[in-house]
Specification:
rod-shaped, alpha+beta, 3 helices, three-stranded antiparallel sheet
Length: 133
């Protein structure tokens, strides 16, 4: 009985699969995390670009309608579901100067299955002064 147990204890068959299970889990989770981070960064950059286009419209024509700005923003966004994009327009005063505010929000749900059901929101906002001309 003791001889069989010692032989089993010294056996290294299957050690590679155990090592892969331990290291592979960490490596795959890290890889998926990098993909999710890159996806979120891409979405945030595209939202920022869409906001830049809207800001440019306001600066060239301070009377541009909010509906036209929303069309510009939605046409510039190519990721995921554009219907989930939340766009808010407003006006405020900064040092006595009336300015327009634009806020874009997009709820992001992680694609990694089973990790979490929570989501987070990407947000881009701008305060745009009236055009000089």
């Amino acid at each position: 009985m003791t001889h069989g147990f010692l032989r089993l204890a010294r056996c290294d068959k299957g050690a590679a699969s155990i090592e892969f299970a331990l290291v592979g889990l960490v490596a795959i989770t890290l890889f998926l995390g990098i993909i999710e981070f890159g996806r979120s960064l891409y979405m945030r950059n595209e939202m920022s670009y869409a906001m830049d286009l809207a800001e440019r419209q306001i600066l060239t024509n301070s009377t541009v309608a909010n509906a036209d700005l929303e069309t510009v923003i939605r046409n510039a966004i190519t990721f995921e579901v554009p219907a989930n994009l939340q766009i808010t327009f407003g006006t405020t005063s900064v040092n006595g100067l009336a300015v327009r505010t634009v806020l874009i929000r997009y709820p992001v749900t992680l694609l990694i299955p089973g990790l979490t059901t929570r989501s987070f929101t990407l947000k881009v906002d701008r305060i745009v002064p009236p055009s000089a001309g």
